[in-house]
Amino acid sequence: MNQLGKFITLEGVDGAGKTSHIEFIKEYLTNLKLDFIMTREPGGTELGERLREILLHDEMTPKTETILMFAARNEHIEKVIRPGLTSGAIVISDRFTDASYAYQSGGKGVEDEEIDVLKDLVQKNLQPDLTFLFDLPVEVSIKRLKKTRKLDKFEKEEKDFHENVRKKYLMIAKNNPKRFSVLNSEKSIDEIQSQIKIKLDELLK
Ligand code: TYD
Description:
This protein is α/β, with parallel strands linked by helices. The chain has eight helices and five strands. It has a five-stranded parallel β-sheet, sandwiched between helices.
């Protein structure tokens, strides 16, 4: 693929404040007059959004869940992400494959090797250029979640599940230090946003 644009992904445990920083990133790129696409997983396409409804609310085995995540992802990559990057846009996805390793493997025990197979099948040479990991101790994220919304299937999981998801994310970040920027979500919004700005400027210069 002839990739002209940049691919950025946003990850983190539920309740780590991803959503509010998405607004900041959009505003920042709009002010710079850059062409960008903000999208999300599971979702990002018509079929993907229908799969999202099922994935977030229906019970299924962890392996089925993984396969459906990657079915939605394949649609997303072919219809939104690759075309966007080929046209030279910055494509930002609210979650991507790291989430499958963190939630389905870290949280639910699917083998990494099985996820590797699906990843190779749908992603081929596609890799994010930059991944922001919004990190927060699980006690704090659970408190925040309970205050702010009606919980989906993943958000209702036990504390141990979220601990394992967080651990897995931090391990992936540690193994890919060039791609990851880990943001401590306990810091002030201003501090987090200035770290985001530095990383975006570095990537987009
Ligand atoms: P999330 O991105 O947190 O959206 P919202 O802020 O609207 O709740 O919700 C998506 C959920 O899907 C989240 O709990 C993580 C989960 N998920 C996986 O388990 N595996 C995946 O591969 C992806 C992309 C998401």
